[in-house]
Amino acid sequence: MTALPVCPDSVAGGDDTFARWLAERTGDLLLRVRVTGLEGSALANAGDAAAHDLLIELFARYRPHDAVLSEEGRDDRARTAAHRVWIVDPVDGTREFSEPPRQDWAVHVALWEGGNLVAGAVALPAAGITYATDIPPRVAARTPGPLRIAVSRSRPPAFVAELAGELGAELVPMGSAGVKAISVVRNLTDAYVHAGGQYEWDSAAPVAVARAAGLHTSRADGSPLRYNQADVLLPDLLVCRPEVAQQISSFIRSRKDPMPAD
């Protein structure tokens, strides 16, 4: 069994720095799993399991009194009464992870405390980049030209095409939910609008980072995002530059038909 990484006291002492460290160490492990010779679903399953197990062991060592909500773990509803809950997606974009050399997959680590997201990190291991709340990202001035909206590379929902037409925007296909949300932080896009099918672990860490960067985050219709709920389904999401939030959420609210899944 590989020895657990040792977290320096100076890092473990802060939730923001610890979130970054967790995401990066998990990313390191996933990169090692990616070169074991496994392919397809076997690689995807091995990555999910290895990343989840590492995170759970590290929480047990460094945050033994905190609750954990992980995509790959059993949901203990006792967490809803906890004051501190780590919300993690060990591999966000498992399909992209299982298709080397794709880079559009991520590791999500977020901390919910007393009703709010207070720390978060999104690692993009294959790109060697991590965005976290310990060093809030600075979003560059918007690139001139049409608005850019991040969408699923394989199944962009029809309503986003309608939104793009309404705003004169262009659609930018890419992989995982975290990569799409962080694309706004990176000034690769101006907005990410998600239509459905997500859970709390898909958005918690990207939302924490986006908020630290000064971006708008909400449900697609502009209503608040709520985490550590008994039902972890959080079906829609808007991450965007503040100046376009009202336009987008108003369009969403004007639709009479339900939004399809992304």
TrEMBL record:
UniProt GO molecular function: 3'(2'),5'-bisphosphate nucleotidase activity; metal ion binding
SUPFAM superfamilies, alphabetized: Carbohydrate phosphatase
Gene3D superfamilies: 3.40.190.80, Fructose-1,6-Bisphosphatase, subunit A, domain 1
InterPro entries assigned to the protein according to its UniProt record, in alphabetical order: CysQ/Inositol_MonoPase, Inositol_monoP_metal-BS, Inositol_monophosphatase-like
Binding site for Mg(2+): E71, D89, D92, D202
Entry cofactors: Mg(2+)
PANTHER family, alphabetized: 3'(2'),5'-BISPHOSPHATE NUCLEOTIDASE 1
Protein name: 3'(2'),5-bisphosphonucleoside 3'(2')-phosphohydrolase
Source species of the chain: Nocardia speluncae
